Structure to design on (279 residues):
C-alpha cells in the first residue's frame, strides 16, 4: 500500500479509529506514516487497503489485529534519564520534600513507559538518594498500551547500544549486570520496586490507585488538546495532595489545571498538587 494509493475516505475513517482507540491524532497529510508503519503487516495478512483493514477490525474487535495496528502506529522512542533535569529534581527537591511530608513509602506512576527506561531510571535515582542517606522507599508502576513494550520492560534486559542512550558508564556498572555478551539486566535491587502493567491512558485510572509522583512524558504530544486536558485532569485526581507531576520538556500545562502549581528549578519545571484549602 503506497501512501498515494490511500483512499481519502479510508484515511479519514482510520484517523477516527486511531484517535478513539488510543488518543493518537494523525495530521491531514500523514498517509506516508500509515503506509510505512502498516505496509508490512497488511502485506503479511493479505489486506489490500485501509478500508479492508478497518472492516476486519470491526468484524473482530477483540481479535489481535486491532492491538497490532495500534502498536505499529505508536512511537516508542525513549532513553535513560531522558532530559536529565527531571531526575535531578527528583533527587534534590521531590524526594526530600516527600520525606518532609513524613512519607516513608511512596507510590510512583510512569505512564506510557515504553520499554522501561523511565521507571528504572526513577528507581536508580531513588537508589542514589538512599545511598546519600535519604530515607524513602517506593513502589513504581510503569504502564504502556503496547504489549511488546510491556514485555520488554518486564524483561529488564537491554542491549549495549540501548544502554548507551543516556546511561553513564558508572551507572551501568553499578546498576546492571551482564547476562550474555552485549546484553545487560537491571540489578534486582533496582528492579524489585518496579511493576509493569498494560494500560491505555484513555481508560479509567481508578484501579491504579493514588500516587505521590506521576511521570507522563513524551506521549501527550501525539494527542488532541481535548484528550491532553482530560488525561491531565484525571491524572491530577490520582495525585495525593502535595504530590508531583512531571511532564515532557515541551509539554507545559499551566493553563490546564488550577489544582496544580508550577515548581521551577534546575532548568526545568515540575508540577505539585496543591493541598486542599482549609476553611
Ligand atoms: C515516545 S514514548 C515515551 C516513553 C517515555 N515516557 C519517555 O519519555 O521516554 C511514548 C509511549 O507512549 C505509549 N502510548 C501511546 N499511546 C498510549 C496510550 N493511549 N496509553 C498508554 N500508552 C500509550 C507508546 O506505546 C510509547 O511506548
Amino acid at each position: 500500500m503506497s501512501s498515494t494509493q490511500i483512499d481519502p475516505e479510508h484515511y479519514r475513517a482510520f484517523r477516527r479509529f486511531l484517535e478513539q482507540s488510543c488518543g493518537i491524532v494523525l495530521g491531514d497529510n500523514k498517509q506516508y506514516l500509515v503506509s510505512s508503519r502498516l505496509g508490512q503487516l497488511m502485506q503479511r495478512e493479505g489486506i489490500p487497503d485501509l478500508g479492508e483493514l478497518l472492516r476486519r477490525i470491526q468484524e473482530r474487535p477483540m481479535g489481535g489485529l486491532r492491538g497490532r495496528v495500534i502498536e505499529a502506529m505508536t512511537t516508542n522512542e525513549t532513553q535513560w534519564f531522558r532530559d536529565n533535569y527531571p531526575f535531578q529534581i527528583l533527587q534534590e527537591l521531590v524526594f526530600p520534600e516527600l520525606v518532609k511530608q513524613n512519607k516513608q513509602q511512596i507510590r510512583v506512576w510512569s505512564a506510557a513507559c515504553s520499554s522501561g527506561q523511565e521507571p528504572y531510571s526513577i528507581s536508580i535515582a531513588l537508589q542514589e538518594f538512599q545511598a546519600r542517606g535519604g530515607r524513602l522507599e517506593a513502589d513504581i508502576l510503569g504502564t504502556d498500551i503496547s504489549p511488546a513494550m510491556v514485555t520488554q520492560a518486564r524483561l529488564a534486559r537491554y542491549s549495549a547500544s540501548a544502554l548507551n542512550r543516556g546511561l553513564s558508564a558508572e551507572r551501568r556498572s553499578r546498576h546492571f549486570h551482564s547476562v550474555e555478551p552485549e546484553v545487560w539486566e537491571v540489578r534486582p535491587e533496582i528492579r524489585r520496586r518496579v511493576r509493569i502493567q498494560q494500560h491505555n491512558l484513555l481508560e479509567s485510572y481508578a484501579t491504579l490507585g493514588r500516587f505521590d509522583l506521576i511521570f507522563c512524558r513524551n506521549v501527550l504530544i501525539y494527542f488532541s488538546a481535548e484528550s491532553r486536558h482530560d488525561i491531565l485532569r484525571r491524572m491530577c485526581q490520582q495525585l495525593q495532595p502535595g504530590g508531583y507531576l512531571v511532564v515532557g520538556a515541551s509539554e507545559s500545562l499551566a493553563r490546564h489545571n488550577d489544582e496544580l502549581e508550577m515548581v521551577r528549578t534546575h532548568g526545568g519545571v515540575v508540577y505539585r498538587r496543591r493541598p486542599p484549602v482549609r476553611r
About this structure: The chain has two domains: 3-73, 85-273. The chain has a mean pLDDT of 93.
